[in-house]
């Protein structure tokens, strides 16, 4: 089975819980390859580094550096400007491989994984 390489932009309340869920999915060929978060001193960044994920302070720099090494980039920043700029970077790079998944997709996946039994972090 093919490994899905995932990156997360934004490790706040939603992003940190989502990171934990993705790390638990490692046996199912899900690999967190990078995270972007301005606050380097938080627990989620430490966890990501522990599993060998790349760390970036800015999601745009992460995408520029890693390009199509990322299959799915979860944009959990909540920032419409960053989301637009991430799409612009994909276009500039000619990257038709990486998918940028907004928070609504993260919510959908969360609901499916937990079968509605766990409250989505806000």
Question: Can you tell me about this structure?
Answer:
α3 runs parallel beside α4. This protein has a single domain (4-114), classed as NAD(P)-binding Rossmann-like Domain (Rossmann fold). Helices cover 44% and strands 19% of the residues. The longest helix has 14 residues, at 80-93. The chain has 122 residues and is an alpha/beta fold.
Q: In sequence order, what are the helices and strands, one letter per element?
A: EHEHEHEHEH
CATH architecture assignment: 3-Layer(aba) Sandwich
The count of β-strands is: 5
Distance between the termini: 33 Å
Largest sheet: 5 strands, parallel
**Which CATH top level class fits?**
Alpha Beta
Strand order of the largest sheet: 3-2-1-4-5
Counting helices, strands and paired strands, the structural category is alpha/beta
Mean pLDDT figure: 92
Strand content: 15-25%
Q: What is the CATH fold-level name? A: Rossmann fold
> If helices are DSSP runs of H or I spanning 4 or more residues, what is the number of helices?
5
Radius of gyration over C-alpha positions, nearest whole angstrom: 13 Å
Low-pLDDT stretches: none
Work out the count of structural domains.
Answer: 1
What is the H level of CATH, i.e. the homologous superfamily? NAD(P)-binding Rossmann-like Domain
Shape: globular
The residue fraction in helices comes out at: 40-55%
């Amino acid at each position: 089975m093919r490994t899905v390489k995932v990156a997360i932009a934004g490790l706040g309340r939603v992003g940190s819980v989502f990171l934990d869920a993705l790390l638990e999915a490692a046996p199912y060929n899900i690999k967190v390859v990078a995270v972007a978060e301005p606050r380097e001193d938080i627990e989620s960044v430490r966890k990501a580094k522990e599993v060998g994920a790349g760390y970036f302070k800015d999601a745009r720099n992460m995408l520029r550096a890693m390009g199509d090494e990322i299959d799915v980039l979860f944009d959990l920043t909540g920032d419409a400007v960053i989301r637009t700029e991430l799409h612009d970077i994909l276009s500039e790079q000619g990257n038709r491989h990486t998918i940028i998944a907004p928070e609504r997709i993260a919510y959908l996946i969360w609901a499916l994984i937990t079968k509605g039994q766990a409250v989505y972090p806000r």
